[in-house]
Design goal:
The structure holds two protein chains of two kinds. Chain A has helices at 3-16, 20-53, 59-69, 74-85, 100-136, 141-151, 157-169, 172-178, 188-198, 201-233. By secondary structure, chain A is mainly α. In chain A, α2 packs across α6 (141-151) and α4 crosses α5. Chain A is globular, with a radius of gyration of 21 Å. Chain B has one domain: Rossmann fold. Chain B has helices spanning 44-51, 90-94, 105-118, 134-146, 164-179, 191-197, 215-220, 225-231, 235-243; strands spanning 6-13, 21-28, 33-37, 59-64, 76-79, 152-156, 183-187, 200-205, 208-214. The N and C termini of chain B lie far apart (48 Å). The chains are: A mainly alpha, B alpha/beta.
Amino acid sequence: MSAFAATFSDALSLLAHFDHTVLEIVTLSLQVSGAAVLLGTLIGLPLGACIAVGRFPGKTTLSVLINGMMGLPSVVVGVVVYLILSRSGPFGALGMLYSPAAMVVAQTLLVVPLMAAITRQVVEDVWARYAEELQVMRFSWWDSVTTLLHDCRHSLVVAVLAGLGRAMSEVGAVMIVGGNIDGATRVMTTAIALETSKGDLALAIALGMVLIVIILALNALAYVLRQWAMRRFG
Amino acid sequence: MPIFPLSIHDLRFAPNGREVLAGVDLELGEEGITLVLGPNGAGKSVLLRTICGLLEPSAGRMAWGGAGGARPQQGVMMVFQRPMMLRMSVLDNVVLGLKPLGVAGAERRRRGVEMLERVGLADRAGDSARQLSGGEQQRLALARAWLTKPRLLLLDEPTASLDPSASAAVERIIREIRTDGTRILMVTHNLGQATRLGDDIVFMAGGRVCEHTPVRAFFARPRSEEARLFIQGELPWRMRFQGA
């Protein structure tokens, strides 16, 4: 058997036997990325909708800034969060550095601009069509934001999925602020990078398979939900 | 806050220097259905949008309730040619206008169900509003506005692109809303509809009100040359010819 096939066979064996290390890393990854996407949803979606509906000076500048931050390099975010959470930083007293909480903060900072930018675009298109009627009904600014977020909920699944994809595939920031500590802050991407450098390709491939399956499964679920919603609500 | 009489004096709207409303004068009393007629580009829809506050006039004034009163915060509603249908049930859509009025959720639903019965949509209450036909959506939009008990209802071509039976259903609801005490100002291109529904006609051309007369008088003896040509179906051609 070639080395390539043997590595794949070992990777599948790890998955088939529910290897403890694999499970631990996958669980922590899902917890960290899930928490970051949850926070990103709570911050990014209303932020994007507020920018779309609001009329204020600097709106265009803010929109361009948010769009630009979609491509924020994760290592830059990692360094910034590292400085903020390090002992000498403003939040050093919290002792969060090299913890899953620090990784959640870093990933949240990465996904918020992405989710806000997508939300702004989606809501702005709908706002252009609904603005007059909502204004005639004397909807307040905030009521308009919540109404539009609710109306766009099926389209905004894309924003949430994009955020989840960014969070789960990100490696630079969590490596810097988490430290990739075995059993504490090791997630799928950092583990794949480390195991590959060590030559333990079986574990790296096993984790990579899990990562791809999770992303594909979530996208398939979102597609099915969206199709159902389109049939149900139009 | 009193709404009537509504006196509009020399109302102008000129975005980017192009005059869409060129000095509109109009008096609206407390009752009835006033139909706004006129060729495309006459400024009919812009007049409605300006009255309900969606557009800020460039000049002129509107005196609400006489004696120079300001626009009331409530009591003026507008229904558009293509009404907004949120991705919610028919019932949730119809009660939407009650939300800013601070009506509690349970009461909103009770009133909504009653209103849907009045407009013949009770059996569709749980369906998605977007799955309704064009005529049903327009009935829902009228019900949504009616539910807020407006004193003045502005209708911008509510039966455009509807078939005759759907138009008849919409017209029936408009009459009921009027009977319920709501003053209606409605834009239409349908002269038959104007004779069936209207008490008086406001005829507009070139951003001005050319005449404001009772329906019968308008069709029997139009005072303005523009109105006479419009009724004969010649005004748009003449204007285009003259413009060229």
